[in-house]
Structure formats: C-alpha cells, structure tokens
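Weekly puzzle thread! Below is a chain. First person to post its structure in token form gets bragging rights.
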Amino acid sequence: MLPLSGGDYSYLHEAYGKNTKKHKTFGNIPAFLGPIPSFLFAWTLTFVMKPSALAIMSMSFATYALAPFYPDCGIPDVVLKLTAAAVILVVSGVNSYSVKYAVRVQSFFTYAKVIALIIIIVGGIVNLANGKTEYLVNGFEKFDDEIETSFSSIALAIYSGMWAYDGWNNLNLATEELKHPRHLVIAVLVGVPFVTILYILTNIAYFTVMSPEEVLASDAVAVTWADAMLGVMAWCIPIFVAASVFGAANGSVFTAGRISHVAARNGRMPELLSFIHARRYTPSPAIILNGFLGLLMIIPSNIEGLIDFFSFTGWMFYASTMTALIVMRWTRPNFKRPIKVPIVLPILVFIIAIYLLFAPIVENPQIEYLFAVMFVLAGLLMYTPFVYYSVHFDASGEYSA
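Winning reply:
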C-alpha cells in the first residue's frame, strides 16, 4: 500500500510515471509513454467517472425523496433534474467550505443509511418467521427461459451489482489525510463485509414482500416495500434512503476533489486544480469542476447507461492498477509499505477485471464500448501538448512550452 492520496492514480504514477535512476519503471519505459496510464486515469475519472457517479446518486436521491409526493404517477422529469441539481450544488458547497463539515455530513447520513437498512432487514426477518418465503423459494422459476447465462450477460449483471459496492476503494483517495494509514486497511476489512451482509439481507427482505416482477417494475424498491409493510409509517423509508444516497453523493465529491488535486500537483492536470483554499484547506477548484460536470451529466437522465459506462471504464483502470501493484513488487522491492498483501490477491483481481472488461465486448459488441474507449484515448490529445510538451497559455493568450 502506498501512503499517498489519489488512489489508483498514485499507483499508476509510481509504477509507470517515474523513470529516474532512483525510481526505475517496468522495462525502463520511454519518457513519453510512462505517465500515460496515470494521466488517462486522472483524465477519465475527473471528466467522466466521478461526475457520472455524482449524477447517478443525485438522480437516485431525487427519485426517493420525491416518490412520496407522486404516489400514483411518475415524477416530472424537470422536477427530478432540478432536485438532483440542488443536491449536487449542496454537497459541492459543503465540501468546498470545510473538510470537517463534509466529514460530519458523511457520518450523519451513514447512520441514516444503516437505520433504514436495519428497519427493512427486521421487517424481512418478521416475514420469514411468518412463513412468507414464496418469492424466495420459487419466485424466479418463471424466468428460467428468459435468464441469459452467457459470459456477456453475467458480466453486465455484475456491473450493476458491483455498483452498490463501488466505494470499496474510496479511502485510498485520501490516504495522506489519515493520521494512521493502517486504519485504512481495518476500515476496508470491516466495512466491506459489513456492507455486503447488510445488502444481502436487505434484498432477501425485499423478496419476502415483493415478487421479482414488482422489483423490476419499481423505480424505488425500498419505497414499494415500505408501502406494503409499514402502512402509515411508510414515509420514513424514502426519507432514510434519500439521506443514504445524499451521504454517498457527499462521499463521492469528497474523494473526487482529491484525485484531480493530486494529478494537478504532479503536473498531469491544469495547475488550478492543485490549489487549496488558504484558510479551509479544501481543494475547492477541483470540487467545483466535479460539481459542474455532474450537473451536465444529469441532463440525459439515463442512469442505466451511466452505470454501464462507469463500470466498463472503471474495470479498465482496476485492471491497470493491479498490474501496477504487481510490477512494483519487482521494480520497487524496498519501497516502504505500511501494509503488504499477498501477490495472489492483485493477480486474482486482475483476472476478474479482464473478464469483466472483455466478456461483454466479445459476446455482444456494442458501439457504447467503443465510445468509452475512444473517450479514454482522447485524453492523449490533451496529454501530448499540455503534459508531455508542457504547453500552457498565459492571460494574454500567448503560449509557451
């Protein structure tokens, strides 16, 4: 583990971006090629992945928060988008104003999330005790002829499922701000299994009340479950779930600012993004950029498309980061590592990432995947002049290199 903020970016930068006598990269990579992996990661995360994640979560918040006000009809698209935009502005404002307030917001809404899940889980346990297992026992039999089990379909299903767990690597983005970096490992080892258990039990609870058809037809599953289970108290679940999503959006903004800040600090992004507020110590320019791009992302309203794009590009860089970990075991054997994991783990994750990356393309090629790859590679058009040749413009419009 590297004691550096920036997450995957820092690993790619350390493995491939440095090529000096003190820090040798794999195979003495030419100076032009070495920084490309870390730059493309910062480029894609800054301009697509983090803003799209923020857009997805803000739209989800709007869906749950507004669901009680539109019980018998769909939520107007304009109202949905305006609410999502308000969420983006609020969380961006909080994170730009104060790290302390951002952390407090995160803690408060994490508690709200756990409370909502516990209510649903307890309701599911009561239903199981009363013998309501119809949909769990044979609820999916009618879909036997429709369920696709190809490598492509399984990979796409994992994309949607893993979206719920995507925060597993977020703590790496702010490692330098931890007083004790080893606590990061403890947080991951405790947090990921805890969240996994909560989510599995929550889904079991859903199917004690709802059929698979009802789950698929619902825009807000927790709200539908609450209407069937809680009666007059059904209003509390959408509030708790909306609070949960709000907290996730806050966490996404918190980490997004750190990525572009670290990349800019290393000369991989515009220098402005490396600036920190003089009194509040927040990477305000990077946070503001992420919020602005998030506002643009909510315009299409296609959450499923955003998730697929986000997941495809995400696993592309997860595979790259695993190669960086493996490479540094040989190129940087004496590097001080607060935590060292068995080499078999990054190899296993790399294999899984390669499968998730190529299975959908091989069995069911779609133009969207080509667009995703083209956007990532389009970063080279920015890398060559502005990073490799260090071309920049001053206020008068003149440029220098």
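Puzzle host: Confirmed. Bonus trivia for everyone else. Residues 152 and 359 are 5 Å apart (CA to CA).
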